[in-house]
Each structure stands twice: as structure tokens, then as C-alpha cells.
Amino acid sequence: MAETLFAYEPMIRLGIFIGVLLAMALWELAAPRRPQYYRRGQRWPHNLLLVVLDTLAVRLLFPLAAVGVALMAAEQGWGLFNVISPPMWLGVIISLLVLDLTIYFQHRLFHALPWLWRLHRVHHADLEFDVTTGLRFHPLEILLSMGIKFAAVVALGAPALAVLIFEVVLNASSLFNHGNVRLPAWLDRRLRCFVVTPEMHRVHHSIEPRETDSNFGFNLPWWDHLFGTYRAQPAAGHLHMTIGIEDFRSARDLRLDRMLIQPFRSTPSRG
């Protein structure tokens, strides 16, 4: 079964990715949460081309996907769960939680260290907040993130099934929680007990540093509550808050070439 998962992993991930992307794009057209000043034609081609470059970079430098790394670790007996061999269901559940916690702390690290923030600020410099913002990451950040993920998978000895589920859910949740979609307030309150909603994550994309440094979770909201980084609402409200960061407010900064060189441009130090 594990080898079958590895063989079909790219097709599974691509199929779900395209399905969620299209569903969110249609939802944004039908029920947008915020009016957008910058047209989709100014942003979407560049954000989508960036994810293509990210994918090519990962496939070139990491021939084995995370599922493949999990299979290799199992064959070699590397990692905690390949030593103590817990029941599959328990190993999958714990792996999903630990991997999600790893991404939470990785996210905080990319905000805390200046040289990592230079990479991550490409994601935050989008001047609108919608489904394609969830794809807007610099290739160097994606490569570093993949290395951290591989290390966590090997150290934990995470089952290949857990890694595949985690990868699919992480990608889908990034598209979902960056959506410019309207949710009833009562539904948002209930959903954010279990998943990071667009209303919750939008706060993280505020221009206000106190709000930018909050709501770090991508999938599970529990870590923000546990570690004191949860913020329920933006001070200016969702309709009036400013998206982005101070240093990059020009429409030309939305272009692919500008995103790729942005980490190497000098800007005032982040407080």
C-alpha cells in the first residue's frame, strides 16, 4: 500500500490542489468578503507562476517527495515510530499533530529571524488577500521549509500515509484560509475551534506588526491558543484593515520578477 501511495502521490496532490483552487476561486466570485482594489489580472498570473517555479525547484532539488522520505525512513528503520512501532492509527494521528506543530513553529521562526523574514515577507507583501496569496512563497522559503519537513518526518518516523494526508491537508488549508470568502459569523466561530478559517488567518496579513505576529497556524488553530499568539479580530475590522507590509506598497511589487528579487532588496529593519 505504501509503495502505491508513493506512485500516485503526485496525481493525488495535483488533483486535490486543482479542485480546491477552482472551488475557492468560484466561492470568491460568488461571495467575496472584501472588495479588491487590485485586479486579479494584476496578481493572479504572477502568483500562479511563482507556485510553478516553487514546484520545479522542489522537484529538481528534492527528487524524493515527503512521502518518499517517509518510505525511505521506514526501510532504514529511522525515526521514533520505526523503532517503537505503535499501531498505525495512533502513529498517523500523532504524526499529523506533530507535523502541524512543526509548521507552526517554523512559521514563527520565519517571522523572528531577519534573514528568514526577508524570504517570508514575499508572502506578506501581497496587497490583496485571496486564494492565490496562499501560493505566494519565495522558492528559497519553499526549499527551506521542505528541508525542515523532511527532518521532522525522518526524526518522527512518520508513516507514509500520515505524510500524504498532511501534505494534502496543508495545501488545501492554505488555499482555504487565504480565501477572500464570506462566512456567516456563527459558522466562523464554530469552525475556528477546529481549523484555521479565512477570518482568523486574515488577521495575520494585517499591516499592523502586532497583528502580523499572531495567528501563525495554517491548519489547526490550537497552537496559537496554547502558545499565546491568537488574536480574534483585527483592530480596524476586516473590511477596513490594510493588507500587506509597509515596505512594498507599489503595484509593480506584485510582479513575478519583483517577488523573486524582493528578499535581496534593502528595507528598513522590521520592529
From TrEMBL:
Signal peptide positions on this chain: none
Compartmental location: Membrane
First-listed, main subcellular location of the protein, grouped into a coarse class: membrane
Pfam families: FA_hydroxylase (PF04116)
Chain ranges of the Fatty acid hydroxylase domain: 93-229
Transmembrane regions: 6-27, 48-74, 86-105, 150-170
Keywords for the protein's UniProt record, in alphabetical order: Membrane, Transmembrane, Transmembrane helix
PANTHER family linked: STEROL DESATURASE
Protein name: Sterol desaturase family protein
Natural source organism: Zobellella aerophila
